[in-house]
Amino acid sequence: MKWYNKYLSVYNTSLSSTYGEIINEVRNNISNLQSKNPLVTVSVIAYNEEKHLLGCLWSLSEMKCKYPIEIIGVNNDSKDKTEDIFKAVGLPYYNEYQHSCGYARKCGLEHAKGKFHINIDADTLYPPKYVEIMVDSLMKPGVVAASSLWSYIPDKDHSSIGLKLYEFTRDCHLFIQSFKRPELSVRGLVFAYHTEYAKKVGIRVDIKRGEDGSLALGLKKYGKITFVRKSAARAVTGYGTVGIDGSLYNSFKVRAIKSLKNIFSVFSAKKEYNDEDSNLIK
């Protein structure tokens, strides 16, 4: 049985009164994990994530970590019961009323007490050793950031073979990019970094997407960005932007064409990128 199967019982479902026992369990687990002097801050950002947040927090509450941690939440002005879930499980959280992943991640970073900061997306489930493995990587000399890999939750609309092929080709592409342009291979849902350096660089709030890559680009001047390939650190998530393109085949085709157009550029480093007008928040 997959490690995440139990969490699927509350994933992609609205908050229900029948979840009382699970909520109490998550509350107790989180309370036992919280440290007054954390080495690492785990911040969970959420915007209208009522259907996913409890599953995410349930997975985090069962983490196995040798380091002192704190878990905090950021409610990005949700209109559903996202905030109710934060309250129900007793998680310290902050309300961020300006919308965007950038603002939400920035809010989490600003309130982080730990030396290290780990981004968590509320629609994602994390394996029990995830945080520990990411911190292990950050503890290595010269490393300022670490990014892991992720898989998609199988469902009736996506075959397991199709998912494996899609993830394999994507992972290979990210691996090739990571040598010269690591900033293009990081993703916010599986990203961790030194808090102090990240605060110096800052998180962009003027773009719709790419705030994670922009932060990684700025962090490069302080040290190395490493990539964690261990299966024990592979998160699982919903289909997000992949689903926008319809089938996995269409998603693969769109991304493959874009990658092929820029295939030679990944073999040289870059210090800055130009913003696309369509990605700017106006």
From TrEMBL:
SUPFAM superfamilies: Nucleotide-diphospho-sugar transferases. InterPro entries: Glyco_trans_2-like, Nucleotide-diphossugar_trans. Residues 42-159 form the Glycosyltransferase 2-like domain. Pfam families: Glycos_transf_2. Keywords: Transferase. One of its GO terms (molecular function) is transferase activity. It comes from the Bacteria. The keyword Transferase applies. Belongs to the glycosyltransferase 2 family. WaaE/KdtX subfamily. This is Glycosyl transferase family 2.
